[in-house]
Amino acid sequence: MIDLYYAPTPNGHKITLFLEEAGIEYRLIRVDISKGDQFRPTFLAISPNNKIPAIVDLNPDDGGPPLSLFESGEILLYLAEKSGLLLSGELRERHITLQWLFWQMGGFGPMLGQNHHFNHFAPQSVPYAIERYQVETQRLYNVLNKRLEKSPWLGGEHYSIADIATWPWVNAYERQRIDLASYPAVQNWFERIRTRPATERAMRKAEQN
Ligand SMILES: N[C@@H](CCC(=O)N[C@@H](CS)C(=O)NCC(=O)O)C(=O)O
Q1: Would you list the domain boundaries of the chain?
Q2: Does the beta carbon of 50 lie inside 6 Å of ligand 1?
Q3: How many angstroms separate the alpha carbon of residue 11 from the centre of ligand 1?
Q4: Assessment of whether the complete model's pTM goes beyond 0.85
Q5: Rounded distance, CA 53 to CA 14, Å?
Q6: Structure confidence by residue, pLDDT tens digits, 166-191
Q7: Could you tell me the fold of the domain covering 2-86?
Q8: From CA 118, how far away is CA 121, in angstroms rounded?
């Protein structure tokens, strides 16, 4: 059983997408980041960086006490290794998958996060920052499009944690002022994931919580 500390944001969706896809039993614990729940000492004991998502694995495979983890990329890797799902065991596909997972964690997520911030949340308009993150967002979508022109999934032949990490950010493309039709391979990949039953279940959970 996994306890998932969650809010319905792109980084939160990554973990519900994985858990629904893998069919792992979990309990969703809502952290209201708009009300500051992420700064409560009980949550900080699990996630000292005061961000969702975080998990507690109540039955880690070493038989030891419950294990808390934060950082969505690490949580995906942990769950993939625990379940043997959504991360290839074959050397090349495994490392290409992890490469795209790190790309998402180090670039696509943080840059699109800045795009969201300066387009929607900044208390004053900062044209330089809006332009900077818009150009970077478009560059990253081009990189993604080129990869998906060559390969059905980010890691290669199989749907994986790299796709799961990236999809929820593309799902917010309108907020990033991105016209998805300009990136046809991304659009095709996006629709293939959007219509998976596990994705639909995960996104329904987001609406309910
Ligand atoms: N690198 C982190 C980023 C997590 C993150 O930015 N979480 C946001 C929601 S998407 C959050 O909890 N923000 C609350 C805050 O910053 O106080 C991850 O991938 O887990």
Answers
A1: 2-86, 91-197
A2: yes
A3: 7
A4: yes
A5: 9
A6: 999 999 999 999 999 999 999 999 99
A7: Glutaredoxin (3.40.30)
A8: 6
